[in-house]
């Protein structure tokens, strides 16, 4: 008896006994228990649903690029999440009756397909278990606990081919037929909106002869031109402006130097053309004239090569035909060329071949030679991997512990669903379909690690943060392989298991040993590791009996689009991008919001609510925590981010990757960002340390190293203004000098005396003003502080008073002296200014409240207690009468405030209205607040600044990506 599994490109047959269960044992199926759902109640009935309008415009052109009104989502889903799902995942023609309009329809389309296939292929013990599986999976998706990768939402349950995989690896041999077939297969994958990678090292070099004619071979770099042009033409199914592709070349290939320098030379060409007036921005009309821009390039290095680099020895480049050494090079010199090219244009990345294959579960079938475009999926040639990612923050309990038990149950359900999908999936080529069905590669991963670490009070670059990340990754992969072994007992091990049994078991033991080596530091990671240890014990015990259903279980993908679907603050393994967020609101309008994990992290260290409010207000104005009132410097590191004043150091990213890597079947999609000032030597050290720390792959990006990216660089704008001023100064021949004149106060003038206490130090401030024109003098008297301080304060008062009378604006002094930090500092007796970093900080905050108009001090983040209270109640700092008089705020604040009242995801204490004419994304918000640039391209769909996600970029406005599927 045989069973036929048909894909749109062909079919394969296999033994039903081998597929359905173990020999001489009737499969019983899985018993599924309820964890999140309630018997007798459908998950949809537990939530409140609402209708929304989704309208997307390109802000530069004003063109409406998408419109669907009346879509249905739970009330707790953000506008971003519902927009991205509506525009990306709802199927059917827009404006037609067959178009999906509710999240219920989308979830049912996918989940019911999984349930039906699971029942048909014997995964469940009974129909009741199948129903529980359906309800549990629906509940987790509905509540944003996890998401499948995008192809699942695109294709499953539709009339289209049921492609579920986002990651593909191809193969090419040293023949023209194979090379032309490579172009064809890559094109088919790009047409479907996915990406592919392959290794070109089998193609003989340009330094070798053709056997047929005796002529010289073209070499792999020449054939990259054709593939690059094809990718640029197809543009990933019309969904993005470039295809996603990876090209790998082994370090011992004779053409390795040409490969390394290829994109660097093209970047030089871009600079010359740009300076000549051509449009060389990413997507510009002239950028297509340069080559090799549609692929990520990576060099595959061996331990032999890296040891030669370390020892400054020589290294042999080998012929492709007979493996003989045809050239010897200085290893360190070649490594420096790789590093210099990465410094100049961010390519090539690096892949560590021996490490990758040391963790390979199926080496008897073939070596791992390449990866998908984002470098997280690494397995056999002509194979694919479907992905799913968990939202880690959903498993953080109210008492700030990690819910390991429910995390385990969630992983078990997700792995089961992912494996079921291979039973009905279609594949772009017959070879890929055969390999995937035989080895059943899965890629479970997670998102929101950065937010989880911050919320639990762990710095991203810390031993504690790495211990927790490693333990969670270990628990995820251990649970996945344990469930894989259980599935093998029900529906059989993967077809290639017996051939690779010893190797697979060896790798499982390596994972378990790495778990034992985790150095736990806190109760939270100790508990997670305890559960992970139990999972790995089950992996070895059950696997020894049943084998495993899947040759691969886990990777860490970028989670760009699906991260927004789950309302994640951070993607993949990344830290938080910035502490200040841009948030669209359900009722219209937008808000600037301080990351919600900041207050939660501060409560971990017993900060008072007053201090937390002051810190959050400071972050809202400055975008960072440096000198935030009341925040201890030793806690700054908890709030380090990918960008900004306290950006995480490059090696902090590398060390975090190293903490997770031993617990992943595949690798990690991540780019290590370096500042523009980084040197070639620093990049070389990152690549070298990546090898030492046991990573499988690594990519770097130095800010502003690429020309073809339109930037909003505040520094560049300031430089341009300065240059214009310098030119103007040279042109002006006649200089007119203006001197300020002193405007004295009248003999009798109104004044206000305020007593104050700052950190226990008491004093008095008398402020005199012009009858009709604001503050004109200040006198300060400190009680019980000695004659020296009294004299200094008198002199300071006189200096300030004279300057005020000469026309120096009070606002200038408020800007300069607020947040000035020295003792005495701390709590005050003033309800409007509850915390002060110094006496000067207090004095000028008080003066701002007394003498500056609301608009000016609001711009400086200074509000009275009454105004802060009003903001909590109504979403606005100003009284209604003031709002009606402020014409500039009519079109922005009222709409945003009203929307915020109806948006349960907005915490009013951390939010303020945003002028949406200037800001549309978090990246642009960050640039506006900090005055620094985010080196990322603009989105081709909506024109907004994208943000880094793994090894690519993602738009938080519409979910588009720069190439990764």
UniProtKB/TrEMBL annotation:
Enzyme Commission number, as recorded: 1.17.4.1
Annotated organism of origin: Kribbella amoyensis
Molecular function GO labels: cobalamin binding; cobalt ion binding; nucleotide binding; ribonucleoside-diphosphate reductase activity, thioredoxin disulfide as acceptor
Domain spans labelled TSCPD: 746-850
Recorded family membership: Belongs to the ribonucleoside diphosphate reductase class-2 family.
Biased composition, class Basic and acidic residues, residue ranges: 887-901
Full protein name: Vitamin B12-dependent ribonucleotide reductase
SUPFAM superfamilies: PFL-like glycyl radical enzymes
UniProtKB keywords: Cobalamin, Cobalt, Disulfide bond, DNA synthesis, Nucleotide-binding, Oxidoreductase
Span of domain Ribonucleotide reductase class II vitamin B12-dependent N-terminal: 54-144
Taxon lineage: Bacteria, Bacillati, Actinomycetota, Actinomycetes, Propionibacteriales
Catalysed reactions, semicolon-separated: a 2'-deoxyribonucleoside 5'-diphosphate + [thioredoxin]-disulfide + H2O = a ribonucleoside 5'-diphosphate + [thioredoxin]-dithiol
Described function: Catalyzes the reduction of ribonucleotides to deoxyribonucleotides. May function to provide a pool of deoxyribonucleotide precursors for DNA repair during oxygen limitation and/or for immediate growth after restoration of oxygen.
């Amino acid at each position: 008896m045989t069973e036929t599994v048909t894909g749109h490109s062909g079919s394969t047959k296999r033994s039903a006994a081998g597929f359905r269960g173990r020999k001489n044992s009737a499969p019983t199926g899985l018993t599924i228990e309820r964890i999140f759902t309630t018997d007798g109640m459908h998950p949809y009935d537990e939530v409140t649903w609402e209708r929304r309008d989704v309208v997307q415009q390109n802000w530069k052109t004003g063109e409406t690029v998408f419109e669907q009104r009346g879509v249905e989502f739970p009330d707790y889903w953000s506008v971003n999440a519902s927009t991205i799902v509506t525009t990306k995942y709802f199927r059917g023609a827009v404006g037609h009756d067959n178009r999906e309009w509710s999240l219920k329809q989308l979830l049912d389309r996918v989940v019911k397909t999984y349930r039906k296939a699971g029942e048909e292929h014997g995964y469940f013990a009974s129909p009741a278990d199948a129903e529980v599986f359906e309800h549990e999976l629906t509940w987790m998706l509905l509540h944003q606990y996890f998401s499948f990768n995008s192809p699942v939402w695109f294709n499953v349950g539709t009339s289209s081919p049921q492609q579920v995989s986002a990651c593909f690896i191809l193969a090419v041999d040293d023949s023209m037929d194979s090379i032309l077939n490579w172009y064809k297969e890559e094109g088919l994958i790009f047409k479907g909106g996915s990406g592919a990678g392959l290794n070109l090292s089998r193609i003989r070099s340009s330094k070798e002869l053709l056997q047929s004619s005796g002529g010289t071979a073209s070499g792999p770099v020449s054939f990259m031109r054709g593939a690059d042009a094809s990718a640029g033409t197809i543009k990933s199914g019309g969904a993005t402006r470039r295809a996603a592709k990876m090209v790998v070349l082994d370090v011992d290939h004779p053409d390795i130097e040409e490969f390394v320098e290829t994109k660097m030379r093209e970047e030089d060409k871009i600079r010359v053309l740009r300076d000549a007036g051509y449009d060389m921005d990413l997507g510009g009309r002239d950028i297509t004239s340069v080559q090799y821009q549609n692929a990520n390039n990576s060099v595959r290095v061996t331990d032999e090569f890296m040891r030669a680099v370390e020892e400054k020895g020589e290294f042999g480049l080998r012929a492709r035909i007979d493996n003989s050494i045809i050239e010897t090079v200085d290893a360190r010199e070649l490594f420096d060329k790789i590093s210099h090219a990465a410094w100049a244009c961010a390519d090539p990345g690096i892949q560590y071949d021996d490490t990758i294959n040391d963790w390979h579960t199926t080496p008897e079938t073939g070596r791992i030679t390449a990866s998908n475009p984002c470098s997280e999926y690494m397995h056999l040639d002509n194979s694919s991997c479907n992905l799913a990612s968990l939202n880690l923050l959903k498993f953080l309990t109210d008492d700030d512990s990690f819910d390991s038990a429910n995390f385990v149950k969630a992983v078990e359900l997700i792995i089961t669903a992912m494996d079921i999908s291979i039973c009905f999936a279609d594949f772009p080529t017959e070879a890929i379909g055969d390999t995937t069905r035989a080895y059943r590669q899965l890629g479970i991963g997670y998102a929101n690690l950065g937010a989880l670490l911050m919320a639990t009070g762990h710095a991203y670059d810390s031993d504690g943060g790495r211990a927790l990340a490693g333990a969670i990754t270990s628990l995820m992969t251990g649970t996945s392989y344990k469930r894989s072994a259980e599935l093998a007992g029900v529906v059989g091990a993967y077809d290639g298991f017996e051939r690779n049994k010893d190797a697979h078991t060896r790798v499982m033991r390596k994972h378990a040993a790495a778990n034992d080596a985790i150095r736990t530091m806190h109760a939270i990671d100790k508990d997670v590791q305890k559960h992970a240890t139990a999972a790995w014990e089950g992996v070895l015990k059950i696997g020894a009996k049943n084998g495993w259903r899947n040759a691969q279980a886990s990777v860490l993908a970028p989670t760009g689009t699906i991260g927004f679907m789950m309302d994640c603050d951070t993607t993949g393994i990344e830290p938080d991008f910035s502490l200040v967020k841009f948030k669209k609101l359900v009722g219209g309008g937008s808000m600037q919001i301080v990351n919600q994990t900041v207050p939660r992290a501060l409560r971990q260290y017993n900060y008072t609510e007053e201090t937390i409010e002051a810190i959050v207000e400071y972050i809202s104005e400055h975008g960072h925590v440096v000198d935030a009132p009341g925040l201890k410097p030793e806690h700054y590191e908890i709030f380090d981010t990918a960008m900004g004043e306290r950006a995480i150091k490059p090696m902090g990213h590398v060390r975090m990757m190293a903490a997770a890597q031993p617990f992943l079947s595949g690798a990690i999609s991540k780019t290590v960002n370096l500042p523009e000032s980084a040197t070639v030597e620093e990049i070389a050290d990152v690549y070298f340390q990546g090898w030492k720390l046991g990573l499988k792959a690594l990519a770097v990006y130095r800010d502003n190293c690429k020309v073809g990216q339109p930037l909003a660089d505040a520094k560049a704008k300031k430089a341009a203004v300065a240059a214009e001023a310098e030119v103007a100064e040279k042109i002006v021949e006649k200089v007119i000098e203006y001197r300020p004149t002193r405007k004295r106060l009248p003999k009798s003038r109104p004044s206000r005396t305020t007593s104050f206490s700052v950190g226990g130090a008491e004093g008095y401030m008398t402020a005199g003003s012009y009858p009709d024109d604001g503050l004109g003098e200040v006198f300060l008297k400190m009680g019980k502080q000695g004659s020296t301080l009294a004299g200094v304060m008198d002199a300071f008062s006189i200096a300030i008073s004279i300057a005020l009378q000469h026309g120096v604006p009070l606002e200038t002094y408020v800007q300069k002296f607020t947040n000035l930090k020295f003792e005495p500092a701390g709590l005050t007796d003033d309800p409007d200014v509850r915390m002060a970093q110094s006496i000067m900080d207090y004095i000028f905050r008080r003066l701002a409240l007394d003498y500056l108009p609301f608009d000016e001090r609001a711009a400086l983040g200074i509000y009275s207690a009454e105004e802060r209270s009003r903001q909590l109640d109504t979403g606005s700092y100003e009284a209604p009468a003031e709002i009606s008089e402020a014409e500039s705020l009519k079109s922005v604040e009222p709409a945003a405030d009203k929307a915020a009242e109806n948006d349960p995801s907005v915490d009013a204490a951390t939010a303020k209205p945003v002028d949406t004419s200037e800001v549309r994304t978090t990246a642009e918000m960050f640039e506006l607040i900090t005055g620094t640039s985010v080196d990322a391209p603009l989105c081709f769909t909506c024109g907004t600044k994208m943000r880094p996600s793994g090894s690519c970029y993602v738009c938080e406005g519409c979910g588009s990506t720069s190439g990764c599927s």
